[in-house]
Design goal:
Length: 371
């Protein structure tokens, strides 16, 4: 598992759908029951495989394998497990305010919370998502254009395959407007807080159906990053996305918007590029590693935090772009990170939660190549 990042999880389990379960359990349980079976309560939820973490106001909310969601109101010192209606692995979570949040994951699941992550209800799953894709394609099937007919065939294939395709990122602007993205180019949009979802694949320049790992907004601009160097930008507030070239065909797992049109993408085997003109041109980011990146986070002080699959943490200065390595005192693989209200860095990973205090965040090794 050491070479699998949060956004690249589909590389290993895209078709299997249950990478995190013991073989005997996965063989015995078809996909459908996990959409109906609530997540099992466990005393060791904070030490489970956790894949993403977010802030709901000052509350921490982490999500992971088998539908586990945990929350903390004391900056990560203690955790309690939430009530979740499904047992699928959850890959991404986001809150737009202290109460309203969404989590997405395997089997096309979208969950919504209105109480800061304590309880969740299902808004969509892969069965209903495929039906929406097919209905959308049929609505446009009176056209004889090849692209439309291709969309119809693809939607029918999604229905035939069943709910085996994961969502990998969720991005809401407010409690009404948001997107979810995932494997095989999946993208859905909502304008009513997820009460209804609209397939958006036909609005995106992605004819090969590349997996989509990250979506970010910069004003009216939206960016998509994905596998094999895929990058697209919307100049019309998400109405359409046009693919733009990047210097490498490695997958981009994480992306961060910076000031004045700046943008950074990172991914497979140390791939890291930055743009100063909203993705029109690119140059290498000032960090060197052979490990795949799993985290890219803007800290409260404006520095950019990188984390790789080996557990190495590095920060990029907001002033001179220099890179320094942090002494994290931990070699565990990191899948996600967030800065708590007290300034500490809270990380999630295959061994659960870890805390790096604020003083350690400010301590850095001399600049140089990251080994």
């Amino acid at each position: 598992m050491s070479n699998i990042s949060r956004r690249s999880l589909s590389t290993a389990w895209l078709l299997a759908g249950m990478w995190c379960l013991p073989a005997t359990y996965a063989d015995a349980a078809p996909v459908a029951p996990v959409l109906e079976r609530p997540a099992l309560q466990t005393e060791h939820a904070a030490q489970s495989v956790l894949i993403d973490i977010a802030l709901a106001g000052t509350r921490l909310v982490a999500v992971g394998e088998r539908g586990i969601v945990i929350t903390s109101d004391d900056d990560g010192l203690s955790w309690r497990q939430s009530d979740v209606p499904v047992s699928v692995t959850l890959t991404s979570v986001q809150f737009v305010d202290p109460k309203n949040g969404w989590a997405v994951g395997h089997s096309g699941v979208i969950l919504h919370s209105v109480d800061g992550g304590l309880t969740w209800r299902s808004q969509l799953d892969g069965i209903r998502a495929s039906q929406l894709l097919l209905a959308d394609a049929k609505h446009a099937s009176n056209s004889t254009q090849p692209a439309t007919q291709s969309a119809l065939r693809l939607a029918q294939q999604f229905v035939d395959d069943g709910p085996d395709k994961p969502f990998l990122d969720v991005r809401f602007d407010d409690e009404k407007h948001g997107y979810v993205i995932g494997a095989y180019g999946l993208i859905f949009r909502t304008t009513d807080g997820g009460e209804s979802w609209q397939p958006w694949m036909q609005h995106v320049d992605n004819p090969k159906g590349m997996n989509l790992y990250s979506l970010q907004r910069d004003g009216r601009l939206l960016y998509l990053a994905g596998e094999q160097g895929y990058f697209a930008r919307s100049d019309d507030d998400g109405a359409t996305f046009k693919r733009l070239p990047t210097p490498h065909d490695a997958s981009y797992f994480e992306m961060q918007v910076r000031n004045n049109g700046g943008l950074v993408v990172v991914g497979l085997r140390g791939t890291a590029f930055m743009s100063l003109d909203r993705g029109n041109s690119w140059k290498p980011a000032p960090i060197t590693t052979t490990e795949s990146f799993s985290v890219l986070l803007t800290l409260d002080d404006g520095r950019l935090l990188y984390a790789d699959q080996a557990g190495q943490l590095s920060v990029q200065s907001a002033k001179d772009q220099s890179i320094t390595a942090l002494d994290s005192s931990s070699s565990q693989s990191i899948t996600a990170a967030v800065q708590a209200s007290n300034g500490n860095l809270i990380t999630a990973g295959f061994r659960g939660i870890n805390i790096l205090n604020q003083a350690a965040l400010a301590t850095a090794a001399p600049p140089g190549e990251i080994k």
